[in-house]
Fold each of these.
Amino acid sequence: MTKRAGRHATASRRGPAVPQRRRHRRLRPVSKRGAAAVLLCGVLAVGTGACGLALASQSGHGARPAGRPSLVPVPRGDAAPVPQPSDGEKVARPASLIIPSIGVRTRLIRLGVTSSGALQVPASAAVAGWYTFSPRPGGIGSSIIAGHIDSLAGPGVFYRLHLMKPGQRVYVRRTDSSLAVFRVTATHMYLKAHFPTADVYGPTPTPQLRLITCGGTFDPATGHYLSNVIVFATLVR
Amino acid sequence: MRLTAKFARPARLAAVIGLALGLAGLAGPAASASPVAAAHSHVGWLRLAHLSPNTPAVDVYLYSFGNPSAKIVLKHVAYGTVSGYEAVRAGEYTVAMRGAGAPAGSKPVLSTTVNVAAGKTYTVAGMGPASGLRLQILKDRLTTPRGKALVRVIQASLQQHKVTVRTGRNVLVRNLAFAAVTPYKTVSAGTWNVRAAGETGNAAESIHLAAGTIHTLVILDDPGHLAIDNLVDAAGSRVLPAGAVQTGFGGAAPVPGSSPLPWLITVAAGLLVTLAGIARLRKSRRALHVR
């Protein structure tokens, strides 16, 4: 039954017998145009794919420019003297942060810890904050400053932090208008699961600075980045 | 001819797809995290002190072992002076003391060798009476018990041969002899009324010992009195935040769909379609020629 029906169907498709030659003649120009169309589609697809690839291969960092480094000048003014071991907490509180090499100039808000014990972060992505339970910048110990890499809408104050290189300078202006100047010693990225708590918050014998932001892969499921970028710096004057 | 064409086409296709996949490998997201690396892997710290009451001022020289040119020279260091910590590469160093103003090439009054380990801190102090002056190497600490402070005492008073030091009502050390050093003791964080009492003289000072800080209290002779010098050996955060820092909302992150795979597939499919188009175009031309 099925076989017969099949055969019948084949036969009926062939049914309206068109002379072979005529069919060829009518189809050939169409097939050429068709081939050209197929070719065009193919080229378009390759082009689209290549563009997509190019966009996708650009990581979030650097995809959109944030800040123009050249616009933030090196701050002027006397640097505060390096504290002697008996100076204790004699340096003033920090007021603003200036990093000319990555175009950062921001006031510093105060940060504490959240109810769950984590480091509090600024509510705004446009400002950085100083962790008030850490030493003051320029005092003995490592002072902690945290800022966002981005907001929901775009780049944040520490968008370019991962670009900092050893030797670059970081300036902290304090409330008495004195200036603490730091030299970057290292920039590292750590998976958040392996956050180096002791290296960041632990005691140090000299005045140092840690700048913290996010980096690496963004996990849309949790709304968080998987890594932290940390800049280690030491006081020069 | 036909044979080569037959082989060439799949070969070309394979090459193209291979190239596309290779590009994908290049475009793939970079490794997201570097392994944990200590920030100061090869550095130790050294500070120099003059704690001998009846020894005149000295010049202190620090040499990298075997290198005759001094790395650090502290001029005219008087009794009671303690330098800040100097970061130095881990290794062997020589500390030499010369009388203040003595030529750098002259024979030192005294010298000692100190082996600086990476990540460790040391105080090299001239201690004792002038007649028995010696350079003592003290190992300093860099970690505190959580939420606590560490304190030790250096007794550098010659006027009071034995000194008792109290933080509030607690005795930190009783009858500490001249030129002696206590080990570090764990102290609850807070502001303490620190008192040092000798037989005929004493001193009191309000000293803030924050959690996560390490202190050395030096008992010094002040003409007619005692004095307490509070040295901060190291300081960290008073409260250690838990875990990592959530400093991003993702607004500048690559969009989730930005995996290169769909684009790669598009490119590969496009290439296939292009090749198919070329093939059909040729076929139709050949057919025309035949006709």
Amino acid sequence: MVTREIQVGQQLEPFVIDSVDPEPMKTMAAILQDPNPIHFDTNVTRELGLGDHPVNQGPTNLTWLTEFVQRFAGGPDRLVTLKVRFLGNVLGGDRFECTGTVTAVDHDAGVAELEVGATSDGRPALGGTAVIKLAD
Amino acid sequence: MSDYGHLAGHRFPGGTYTLPPWLSWLWADACKLEPDWRTAHQGLAYLVALRGAGVSIQDIFDLMDATADSGVVFGEFQVDYHGVLRPGTTYDCEAEVVEVERKSGRRAGVFDKLTFQVKVREEGSDDMTIVCTNSWIFPRAEGE
């Protein structure tokens, strides 16, 4: 849990998926009722010039970034705001990594602001900001 | 070129959405995270908001006269959290278009940025659980 000793410039512990597994993309396609075959049919991704790897769903990437922030914050009830821009595709087999920095701390309000982002095999995938509650 | 600015204030059907416990469990499992029957992952805010808005992706395309192959992409996604999502809970949802802006960029060309917001409360409660604000980008050809 984030204590009041948190400091501007502090780096968050990275969240890493060593190799994005294509298999769960099929489950996620069914859950989302997302018919786009780029998430599960590599014949289509090849035809579209996207290569041999399916494209991970944006909501999965978003969930990983959310997990990254809430681990640092100390739990899901400590999230205040998460604002995300989608910058690029995450492909099956990629190394996905979230990183972040504390950019502001407001002790009176009991909140901290973070700059967060994610890369996929080094390419920008997500960028954004978050606000979290500090521990009492 | 058509102007979609008049869509600001357009209300989606909204209604109620019950978050199925099995779906919450599978969501976490598909994301390689530890599933929890008591607490849904906050990343499910995206799905709760979309289902709660009472519209499909195709409905939104239709509203903007777009098709699935017209290059529509996510812009930004913001969640304001006031509580934790829970499996099996029914949520009351209200959704409306906040604004549609016509923009242009050197690389992106002309596009419309549609922003819509979904307010989610536990059924019968006045207290907000989450507020999701989405923007989607609709590329436009000249003269469209």
